[in-house]
Amino acid sequence: MFPAQPGALRVWSNRLIMERLIIIGSGPAGLTAAVYAARANLAPLLFAGYQYGGQLMLTTEVENYPGFPNGIMGPELMEQFRAQAERFGAKIENVDVTAVDFAQRPFRVWTDDIEYAADTVIVATGASARWLGIPGEERLRGQGVSSCATCDGAFFREKHIVVIGGGDSAMEEALFLTRFGSKVTVIHRRESLRASKIMADRALAHPKIAFIWNSTVEEVKGEYGVKSLVLKNLRSGESSELPADAMFVAIGHDPNTEIFRDYLELDAQGYIVSTDGVHTSIPGIFVAGDVYDIRYKQAITAAGMGCKASMDAERYLEELDSERSAGSLSAAARA
Length: 335
Ligand code: NAP
Prior knowledge:
By secondary structure, the protein is an alpha/beta fold. Helix content is 25%, strand content 24%. The chain has helices at 28-39, 74-87, 149-152, 168-177, 197-205, 299-334, and strands at 16-24, 45-47, 61-62, 72-73, 91-93, 99-101, 107-110, 115-123, 127-129, 145-146, 160-164, 183-187, 209-212, 215-221, 228-233, 239-243, 246-249, 253-255, 285-287.
């Protein structure tokens, strides 16, 4: 679809669109960057992806985003972010970026059928749900195996639902799934939860939630839906089979950095390396949100990073403009 050689002439598409600022990603980081850049009259182009809105589209109630004392549903919060960015003139396209070339300037960004050139780019592609990688998991995805309780929980009314993981995501999923399931079992590989105290206490006290500790799931069984899970107790090494109707995996996330691998410095886990959480190894390419942030991973911190990236991108463009006009002035003086 796109040339393998960075810097090579692109001939597969005859459309090249020039932009000042492209933002890749539509979670809190990307959309906040878009609000700031649009208010600075930069008319940013934001690629939101076919599944726009980031991880909050897959979550339930957000209780810790300031300004919403009664909480707000994740998807509704993202709609508001988006409306705010569009109000100030951000152009938002619900398409995926398929490739980039940050070796040439202006930088190049490709969607399925269009090539874009941009003076500066903010990478805010976030992170995606991690899977266990066990037999049966992929085959039964969408048929009882899921990573999104808000999307799929309602299919399992009065059923036995299993949640994998011991962090905030797993507790959130488990608590939400109690609305549907007759019983929710959390399976965690250790004996204590990683989740914040408030979430852990809520889940531990919930009458519908049971815990299986020190255990992993080795296989998902079932032909057209989940029937049972093969468990391994990590202490005793013993295997057992747990009848279940659904398995929700909530074991963390991996950064979405595959298309940047040839251009940006990444750490061992694939996160974009930045000394200050804004600048990358390439001047003019900025980063924001979970694609960089392995530590905090909150909507509010992602939004803060989006703001910083946008303000620094604006400054970068100002410097670029003065360099360009100084260059054309000296060319005019030479003529
Ligand atoms: P997380 O905190 O990294 O927790 C991942 C959990 O999955 C851990 O308990 C981990 O076990 C387990 N795990 C990882 N790989 C596994 C594997 N291969 N097999 C079995 N278990 C595995 O991820 P998260 O829960 O998605 O949370 C990410 C961040 O978002 C955190 O900062 C969290 O506070 C935040 N968050 C906040 C809220 C909220 O405030 N409402 C909601 C969701 C997320 P170990 O504990 O043994 O490592």
